[in-house]
Amino acid sequence: MLRPLFQRPALAAALLAASVLAAPAQAAELRSADIHPDDYPTVMAVRHMADLVKERSGGKLTIKVYAGSALGNENDSIEQVKLGALAMARVSSAAMHNICEVSRVPSLPFLFRSKEHLHKVLDGEIGQEMLRACEKAGFVGLAWYDSGSRSMYTRNKPVKTVADTKGMKIRVQQSDLSVAMVEAIGGNATPMPIGEVYTALKTGLVDAAENNFPSYESAHHYEVAKYFSMTEHSMTPEILVFSKRQWDRLSEADQKLLRQAAQESVPYMRKLWDQREDKSRALVEKAGAQVVEVDKASFQAAVQPVYKRFVTTPQMQDLVKRIQAVQ
């Protein structure tokens, strides 16, 4: 759930200063947020989108990207987008789970069989349907970005089977579904923002975390958790969301321009992602991280109760069946 604004005085002040209700049509600049650093594929992809928008609008619309958590963590960005103080944000779809329940579907463990399966689903009608589902919550979904496959990494011992995770304190994203997945494999889930994970691993507050190779590398988690076990349990995609409040004040022509530019940024992002993933894996292995193969079947069997708990509506059940049927 989003925290009430009155409980967050610093953000409240920032929002007031930003003139929450200012119409974007009157201001040339649309602001976009990302927690990742400047050279991260998602940041570079939104900047590519910004170049297309500026060129095609003749400078009428511009997008300024604030990277590196300059405007707060993902929950802060989501709250600002909902209120209309921020035009856009690139966030993990896991950060939307408690706001837009359909966003849980692409985060389900072992739902996608491969990167090719993921792309075919997200690029088709199913992907567009899931983007549209968040509008009633105040968010216009513009595009899906890759986030690779998420795997487990640990401080003290490698994980090879689901039995190895029993009793482990494992950092997860701030999502009920992520918590339930870790509980299903016998771990003790510890939700926290990514910015706190390095210290938590270093001090032993958590025994493990789970993420993709680029995040493992860029956040320097490999320095304090040297065993990277290839569970590949989730391919939770990133989502680029736009404020419904600001969107409704744009002309249809500007809306069309933004949608098109966002979609055109997707293949650009995927190319950068593939390059970054290979580079990150090579860097962490060179630094001494051990990449460990695992018994995936043991994990797949353990997480089946997560589907029963979270696929709770006919729409979600239908989406899961259709995704699994995509060849």
TrEMBL record:
InterPro entries: DctP_fam, TRAP_DctP, TRAP_DctP_sf
GO cellular component: outer membrane-bounded periplasmic space
Molecular function per GO: carbohydrate binding
Gene3D superfamilies given in the database record: Bacterial extracellular solute-binding protein, family 7
Coiled coil location: none
Signal sequence bounds: 1-27
UniProt cross-references to CDD domains, sorted A to Z: PBP2_TRAP_SBP_like_3
Pfam families in UniProt: DctP
Protein name: TRAP-type C4-dicarboxylate transport system, periplasmic component
Organism of derivation: Bordetella ansorpii
Organism placement in taxonomy: Bacteria, Pseudomonadati, Pseudomonadota, Betaproteobacteria, Burkholderiales
Gene: yiaO_2
